[in-house]
Recover the amino acids of this structure.
């Protein structure tokens, strides 16, 4: 058999096995380079003929080429820059066995039922399942409205309606009282309690705390303090995030200083990937607050600011909410005002600092030792 020059054999994904690949340039300048997904020459030739026919139909008759969902997912991950893209990549990996090999027009609520059922059996919350459905919906909308090929045709004619599950299990915010905070933080491992104390005094999101770096710190000598500016690529609303330190948050930062050259919060010399873990879940059970989520620390900070009479505008800036103001270029009086407002949350907190947690841990250890005896 004579092998067409546009077909060649190469290693498949992960270097396993050899499969036929296509490399062809058409007269209009378009170039195709992709795997046929098969090691059988006849199947590869049929695949090549199909690609050529697709190109001809699109060029001559305006027929839209069919594209697989996995190809759309790859393009989305390459082009998207949002802070949550890693999480979305994980969801797309889980979705791949269910819809990855389907053509875009074949992805709809009917073909997504297997994914929904599988995730329900895996005990996922509806909110998390919906997150995956939202990513699929967004990709299909992009394919139908923005992504165009060289023939001026969108990847998909019409985006199907992707309905989200009704979130009966959606939980309301659960801010902590000062007493609940002390109990919970005392039960947390040391590295998590520091992160939690910083979070409840700055209103940062979990990902912002986990990724906090020393090179984001900016000294403010005139006020004898410092602030952090988290770059927009790390923030959900895609705006630089100013983090003002009240006296408790500043104490946490000083305690962490010098422990790692790059990241503020680490565990065993490595950055912490997430705060919500088995350690968090076990600690909240022992503390008697089983429904408190990591994000509730942000709600707690906001609630304390409001109870202390901090203005809505200042609360928005301290919590990193998107607004029309440039929130990383403040004058000295404005910074002083924000620091003062943030410190008001400390009084609402009841003055529970790291020293308090250390004392509580020592008392707990003594009690546990006495019980063992």
């Amino acid at each position: 058999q004579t092998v067409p020059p546009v077909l060649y054999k190469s290693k498949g994904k992960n270097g396993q096995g050899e499969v036929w690949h296509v490399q062809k340039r058409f007269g209009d300048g378009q170039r195709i380079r992709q795997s046929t997904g098969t090691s059988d020459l006849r199947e590869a030739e049929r695949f090549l003929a199909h690609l050529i026919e697709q190109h001809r139909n699109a060029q001559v008759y305006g027929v839209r080429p069919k594209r697989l969902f996995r190809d759309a997912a790859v393009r989305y991950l390459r082009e998207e820059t949002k802070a949550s893209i890693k999480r979305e990549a994980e969801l797309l990996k889980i979705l791949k066995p269910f819809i990855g090999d389907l053509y875009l027009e074949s992805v709809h609520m009917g073909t997504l039922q297997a994914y929904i059922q599988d995730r329900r059996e895996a005990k996922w919350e509806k909110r998390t399942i919906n997150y995956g459905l939202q990513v699929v919906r967004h990709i299909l909308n992009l394919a139908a409205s923005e992504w165009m090929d060289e023939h001026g045709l969108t990847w998909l004619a019409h985006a199907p309606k992707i309905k989200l599950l009704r979130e009966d299990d959606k939980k309301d915010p659960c801010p902590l009282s000062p007493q609940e905070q002390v109990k919970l933080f005392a039960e947390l491992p040391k590295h998590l309690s520091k992160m939690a104390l910083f979070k409840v005094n700055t209103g940062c999101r979990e990902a912002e705390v986990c990724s906090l770096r020393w090179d984001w710190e900016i000294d403010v000598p005139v006020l004898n303090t410092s602030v952090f500016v988290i770059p927009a690529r790390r923030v959900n609303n895609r705006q630089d995030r100013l983090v003002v330190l009240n006296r408790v948050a500043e104490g946490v930062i000083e305690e962490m200083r010098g422990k790692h050259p790059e990241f503020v919060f680490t565990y065993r010399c490595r950055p912490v990937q997430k705060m919500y873990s088995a350690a968090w879940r076990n600690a909240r059970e022992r503390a008697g607050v089983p429904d408190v989520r990591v994000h509730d620390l942000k709600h707690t900070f906001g609630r304390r600011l409001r109870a202390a009479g901090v203005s809505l505008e200042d609360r928005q800036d301290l919590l990193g909410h998107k607004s029309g103001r440039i929130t990383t270029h403040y004058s000295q009086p404005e910074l002083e005002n924000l620091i003062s407002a943030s410190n008001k949350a400390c009084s609402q907190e009841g003055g529970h600092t790291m020293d308090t947690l250390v004392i509580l841990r020592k008392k707990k250890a003594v009690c546990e030792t006495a019980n063992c005896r």
In short: The CA atoms of residues 42 and 294 lie 55 Å apart. The beta strands are 7-11, 18-25, 31-35, 217-220, 225-230, 241-244, 266-267, 270-271. The chain is about 45% helix and 10% strand.
